[in-house]
Amino acid sequence: MRSLAIRTALWALPVLALGSCDSGTGGPTTDGGGSPSGAPAGDLTPSAGTRPLHPDEIRGEMTTAFKPAPAGATPVRGDTAVIALLSDIDSLNPFTSTSREAQEVQDLIFPRLMLEEADYYKGPPTFTPRIAESWEFGADGLSIRFKLRECEWSDGTPITGEDIRFSWEAARNPDVAWVSASIVDFIRDIEIHSPRDFTVHYTQESPYQLMDINDVQIVPKHVFGKVPFDRWQGHDWREQSMVCGGPFRLEEYVPNQQIVLGRNPHYWEPGKPYLEKVVFRVVGDLRTQISALLAGDIDVMISVIPKDARRVLEAPHLQLYSYVTRTYGYIGWNCGHPLFSDRRVRRAMTHAIDRENIVESIFYGFAKVAAPQIISSMWASNKNIQPLPYDPDRAVELLEEAGWKRNAEGLFEKDGKPFRFTIFTNAGNEVRRQICVYAQSNLRDIGVDMQIQVMDFNQMSEQLKAHKFESYAGVWGVATKVDNKPIWHSSAANGRFNFVDYKDDRVDEIIDTARVMKDFEAAKKLWDEFQEILDRDQPYTMVYEPRGLVGIHRRFQNVKVTSLRQIENIHEWWVPKSEQKYRAAESR
Amino acid sequence: MFAFVVRRLLIGLLIIWGVYTLTFFAVNLAPGDPFANLENPKMTKEDLERLRAKWGYDKPVLVRYFIHLGKLFWRQPDVRVFESGGLEIRLFGEDGTNRLFATVQRPPDEIVLTPTERSRIDFGAREVRVERRPDGSYPDADIASGRFSVLDTFFVVGETETALETSGVTLRASGGRLQVSPTLASAPDRVTLDGPGGETILLERTAEGLYGPVPVEPGSYRAGGVDIYVPVEQLDTAGVTIDLGSSVLTKRPVTSLLAEPLVNSLILGTAALLLDYIVGVLIGVVSATRQYSKLDHAFTLGALFVYSMPSFWLGLMLMLLFAVKLQWLPSEGMHDIGETGLLDLIEHMLLPTFVLGIGAAAATARYQRSALLEVLGQDYIRTARAKGLPEGAVVWKHAMRNALIPVITLFGLTLPFLVSGSVIVEQIFSWPGMGREVIKAIYGRDVFVVSGITLIATTMVVLGSLVADLLYALVDPRVRLQ
Predict the structure, then answer these.
(1) What is d(CA A202, CA A145) in angstroms, rounded to the nearest whole number?
(2) Is the CB of A203 less than 8 angstroms away from the CB of B116?
(3) Is the peptide bond before A174 cis (omega within 30 degrees of 0)?
(4) How far is B141 from B138, CA to CA, in rounded Å?
(5) Which terminus of chain B is more exposed, N or C, with fewer CB under 10 A?
(6) A366, containing H or E segment
(7) Residues of chain B neighbouring A466 (CB-CB closer than 8 A)
């Protein structure tokens, strides 16, 4: 789900809240990315040398961890799932909210046309029908005709093309100021033929046309339309959001405390959902969340940190689900700075930093060393690129080649100036601070003096944008769409996210061509070359690709956790009668 | 006494305004704003700028300060504007009902179509400018495909024909050509609206060239292709108000945002304050009256121990013991799911109250002990004892009056914490109070929330120190308030 990523500060920059995400994810070793042929799980056994698999870990070898219901069992209704949220949601309206927490809730109460599958390891994501029953591309590639299935909002009003058109109008309306409005840039119009038959017209052909329309979450026109667009930003959407179209509907929202969702009796999938209620509890501290999970006060913790994984595995009532995330952590070297303008120096840095050790010590094995610029679980990843080996001797050689000499104290010097620089990391993120500490000691071993400066996030991002730094520790979340322009194109050095000021003509050329190519085989070849160039130049020292860890109570059956949505199929979860915990809720 | 209170309150107002202003600028001048951490590669810059502008962040900080100060006391009228077929329709409230009127839009002299970032980058769209000719018509222009921002809205240009009606002009694009024409050739005599019951409403043109205003019933109206929803309640008119602004992060008015956390913090704070002063004063008195006894040493040691223990550690240990191991008490929140009762609340309060109160009680006990010891050494206490008063009366009636003064000062200064909440304890026990709001707001640079909290906290400090001064007079007749 691209929009999920887009709206998630978490995925973005070295964001403050990342304390949770980035420590909450981790993972050794599936060889992540899937084989070039796109074969799923089978051939992706954990590589040698990592910890043995615990029987209570449901390990997703790719992007999905799945615990099927026991064979022959039939789902029964009842019970409640209690899910911890790290912070309160900012708005119930998908077009005015920006938080990841809000997205979790909105995904359960507002429908989408299709479901984006977490199969981006074998190619661009595919889509399966949700409220759209079928769709067909027009001959010119500029339109898609959708047929809706018969389904209703929770107040009994039918869901029609008008609702989709209205949602699109909201998405593009400048007064609504949806932060992801550019997603619908190429949708020219939505033409309604009959209530359940409509065509989406595009101005351009692009590889992601289905994704563009699917990222528009559908809200009920007959309710949301009563609030004029220019008031959407400041509006309290609690009353309007009582009318829902997802598997659950909003029952109660106590800000800062909890959001209670109940079964939507009008939901279109027969018999589903099985759970009577889903309760989101705001538990703002990861230590408290883990205590509450162990005590049974909450049932689902979406970001278990690797350090706590053992506690979850040892609790008899819990199960740990782990999946390969779409994030990577790195150290960026300012290529525009005299210290790091030489590729040999940057390669030396990578050789000098023991990334294997970082992954083992900080992530307890729940991460793998990153290497290709496009993460290894993505179809476009170059599987031939291996991490540069940890090799301090080679690092020393490279620095000497670049004209650095060791002085009497063993520190590198050039023209009388010692090799000394500062790395930035943002306050509040323990994982990244630790990575800096490990790197610092590695570099000191070869005679390079790195100082660590922990900064306020906002201050840091201003410095990065202005290229006023030497190096920094960062994390990127990756969209399921392969783009790279905002990070690696030379134009992105000007106020966008090419903080390291990296400029290469061939890279620019590849990005401009490959990002809009509809032929994925051809695009893959270009992306492979792109990754080889970046591997050669090492503007980033790629450090880790983490696993995501989710702790869920054992009583829930048929649970699927994916890297796109951690509670992907909660409408299909169920609990055997004898194990149901919240009976009172059921009788209501 | 009365003059004293009034004078103190006036000074208090000045202090509140000063602190409020300082906070506003401190938050605004710190690097970043509420939108900075939304930025990421998957979002275009202009989408973010639009969101910034929507919340007024496109203006300089000084301007924002005065706008905000104005809004604090003056409510803007709620006027809703709709556009349809070259007309501008306004909905507003007056005399207990909502009214509509329409005006003809004047076509703009210059039209600039700016491509969005994505259209520019992905498809090389360029800016297009069209100027109005003296005769009122516009020349044609070349235009590429893409999405353009124009006249505060968007115009999408594709390979097939597209059209847009806005601000009194109609834009039409097809085959790479852009045609612009005024939507209305001349002002019509009347405007038609479809009412909620299917009836037609006619607005005749008045001498001033306006249509209306006419009162409208609640419900959905349609003008051309535009929906106009008239709410049941009357739209706001201008007037005097107190409005702390809206939170950018949660999109809710600050007053309603803070109401619940304020009460929650008060509940927890009051309980902790009671624990603090009851336990603290009692231990202080016992230690002082039995100075250097085993009990005194035990209390001193205990107080030191509790006082030096960081509250997050104590909190986590207690949680581990009582919630995870023994499972006697809940680990987080104010209520269990589906519960709202008092007993449930008390169960949830026990741990946070203890953690919050006990450290403070240790400090209070030390203050009380030394204050009482000092008083007990004074001549008038010896006199009281010499007169044969029972020890209880000496301590509680005579000594305590004086020994309470430092503790009361402390008490007055503690009052603001009732509302500002405890960041650490609230965070650990997931208590939905002010402390958590403060942290969230400061990190998120949510200026109105921070200012609002400061306003409340400053008011409490001013009132708290006033209360402390009044209490002095109560316990010590020698103190005169002037």
Answers:
(1) 11
(2) no
(3) no
(4) 9
(5) C
(6) none
(7) none
Cβ atoms of A138 and A144 within 8 Å: the answer is yes
- Give me the tens of pLDDT residue by residue for chain B, a chain 482 residues long: 788 889 888 999 999 999 989 999 988 888 888 888 788 777 888 888 888 988 888 899 999 999 888 888 888 888 998 888 889 999 999 888 999 989 998 889 999 999 988 788 777 788 999 999 998 899 999 998 888 989 888 898 887 888 898 888 999 998 889 999 998 888 888 888 898 888 888 888 888 888 978 899 898 898 888 888 898 888 888 888 888 888 888 888 888 888 888 899 989 999 999 999 999 999 999 888 888 889 889 988 988 888 888 888 888 899 889 988 888 888 888 888 777 788 889 989 999 999 988 888 888 998 899 999 998 888 888 888 888 888 888 888 888 888 888 888 888 778 777 777 688 888 888 888 888 888 888 888 888 899 888 888 888 888 888 887 887 777 777 766 65
Question: Two tokens at A52?
Answer: 């043995």
Amino acid at B36: A
**A192 lies within 8 A of chain B by CB:** no
Decide if B397 contacts B415 (C-beta within 8 A): no
CB atoms A179 and B153 under 8 Å: no
d(CA A426, CA A16): 7
Tokens 């501008």 sit at which residue?
Answer: B88
Say how far residue A572 (Cα) sits from the centre of its chain. 22
Burial A356-385 (b: 16+ CB within 10 A, else e): bebbbebbbbbbbbbbbbbbbbbbbbbbeb
Inter-chain touch A456–B432, beta carbons under 8 Å: no
| Contact of B140 with B131, CB cutoff 8 Å | no
Of the CA atoms within 13 Å of residue B7, those in its CB half-sphere come to: 6
User: Is B166 in the A-facing interface, judged by CB distances under 8 Å?
Assistant: no
B65 Cβ partners below 8 Å, 6+ apart? B21, B24, B25, B28
CB-CB under 8 Å, A283 with B118: no
CA distance A232 to A216: 16
Q: A182 to chain B: which residues are within 8 Å by CB?
A: 43-44, 46-47, 116-118
CB contact (8 A) between residue A98 and residue B429: no
How far lies A220's CA from each of A107, A242, A543, in Å? Answer: 14, 10, 45
**Cβ within 8 Å, pair A233-B55:** yes
Residues of B in contact with A142 (CB under 8 A): 158-160
CA separation for the pair A220, A167 (Å, rounded): 8
Contacts of A295 in chain B (CB under 8 A): 323-324, 327, 330-331
ipTM: 0.82
State whether residue A179 sits within 8 Å of chain B by CB: yes
CB A335 within 8 A of CB A473: no
